[in-house]
Amino acid sequence: SCLFSRASHLLAVGVPVMMLVRLLGKAATRTTRLSFSPCVAAASTRSFSSAGPEGTASQQPWSDLELPGLRAPPQQLTPDEEVYSYLTPGIRKTQVADLKGKWDNLGFQIRPMNGHVIFRWANGCWDTGTFVPAPYVLLHINSGALHYGVSVFEGLKAFACKDGRVRIMSPTMNAARMQEGARKLQMPEVPTEMFVDAVAECVRRNVEFVPPYGNQASMYIRPLLFASGHMLGLAPLAEEYSLLVTVLPAGGYFSKGGGDEGVDALVMEEHDRAAPYGTGHVKAGGNYAADLEPVHYAKKKGYGTTLYLDAKERRYIEEFSVCNFVGITADGRYVTPKARSILSSTTNRMLQVLAKEAGLVVEQREIDFDKEIESFKEVGMVGTAAVVVRVKSITRGDKVYRTGSFDTLASIREKFTAIQSGDLPDKHGWMYEVCDGREPK
Questions:
Q1: Is 55 strand, coil or helix?
Q2: Residues of the chain with pLDDT > 90: what percent?
Q3: 0.90 exceeded by the pTM?
Q4: 106-145: pLDDT as tens digits
Q5: Contact, 243 vs 190, CB < 8 A?
Q6: Cβ atoms 287, 318 nearer than 8 A
Q7: DSSP H or E run through 2
Q8: What is the largest CA-CA distance in the chain?
């Protein structure tokens, strides 16, 4: 009866009969409901389950993203309410066979996976979550994210480890940083347990795409929190928010021209990444929009990335395009900038721990570009996607500053990646175990 009702509705809004027949046959692509919700009684062990048959679908949260024909439309709240159906473009999902022989050359690009996880917040409560196969989301045309950039995101990675287990690195750090961003942008915070469960579930549902142990690749995880509800002006705030978690297999953010060979950076004199008391310290989407024009300008000039100085004085080093700045001095100091407008990289925080263990003095402080740039024998770009990439030169105006070796940062990076892959013990408790790996064929 649910399918019949759905079919009648699709015919009413003009879906062709033959398309309807084809769509109704796609039972294998139904969305699934997750069982975590902070609004229900807490449980010591949480599990995720698939949605029930069509006959029980009316008891589940409605998903705008599922393909039509799988459950009845939502109930009308008022007699004059209208319900519309939207179809996605055709989607060709990535197959494991597509990646055979490519695990070391994945690059950093979007590939359609099995699906993603979505949670919605409304009426003061997060729902139980849904796993959705289609890489699309239905938004109100006046959503706060679209009009006012009300969004923050995270980046973290999952690894196939030496012992056959799949683990995620530092998810609680990312959860805490997203919570800080939510407070800054006036969004509901995502509870840490919900965040960790959401990213772990998305990895489990796509586990065959975690690059196998021994390859220079990982599964990149992108959680996104945004105002999906409508806003007109900055008050009142949206009444609905969404947490999406997507994944993809990825190599380094920079091509093989990065890494130890290095990239060239250009100091941006006429652009700012973030204001001193703005949103630079949180991972807001708008922060990255500010770098679009500068970084593409730099690339047209033959540089690999941009470097920003503080917006107030153009004196102190802040960040590279999408990475923290780290410099190694001749006397063995690991120096990284400190300012309210700089995003705290989770990778940088962990590398600082390893640097101290290696006997380096770690300094997080203001770095005067003109006075100190020539004191660094090594400079690196640090972040989740990039890990540690050598910066071989920095150009400011008509002057070029070149770095020497990359031995110290390369050594710290080697230990860091060995912990990620399970080749070294995780004595700091950074790795979160998800499931058994599934060896890609």
A1: helix
A2: 73
A3: no
A4: 999 999 999 999 999 999 999 999 999 999 999 999 999 9
A5: yes
A6: no
A7: helix 2-12
A8: 75
